[in-house]
Known about the structure:
Strand content: 5-15%
Structural class: alpha+beta
Number of strands: 4
Shape: elongated
Number of domains: 2
Low-confidence stretches: none
CATH class of the largest domain: Alpha Beta
CATH architecture of the largest domain: 2-Layer Sandwich
Helix content: 40-55%
Amino acid sequence: MSNVAGKAYGMNVVTPMRPWKTWINRLLFMVARTQPQQLGGLLGLSIIHFARWVMIKRDQWPDLGQGKPDIENDYMLFVSNFNGTWDQYIDAFSDGIPNGLDLFWYSSTKYPGSIPITPFKNYIRANQVDTDYYYNATPGAAQRDIKAALRLWSVLDDLRAQHAALPPADFAEAFRKAFVAVQNDMPSPGYAPVASNDTQNADLNREALIRRPPT
């Protein structure tokens, strides 16, 4: 599945907008940038890597040799990467910022609203464009896993610096305290609830490098 790489899912949604409504959406986005607290429900979702809305005017589509397209509508491009399943993400989006979604997609043609959820899911599914290629540098790790690894690395780096300066007994005490503080960051991240073999394939491809004797 081209949209899935390990624990991550890449989503692209393209929806048409009537040109006379585009300026309204631009104004709404400008207001949203000045009111980040209104996006608290979105920013607090740890499954999201990022989410971006881009408005593409009908005269901005590229000519790649096919000739300049004659398009009646402007378009909204929504791009996002997230952990978990497609349904989990749409559910979290709809629950987290239903009013924000309705503002961002206000001008999109036949947008049904984020609530109730079923028409919203049908709309996203109908306008979703699958990716041809989706690369993930850390297929076995989700956003939380990476943050946990960074916290653990910071503690280990601090202990390395203390090792040369502290007496053995003091360092042993510092070591115990440090690992108690990050014990919840040390379990195996496990695998994603998504049907994907990319994590396993990535591990197999790395095996020869990992097992190679040092030179």
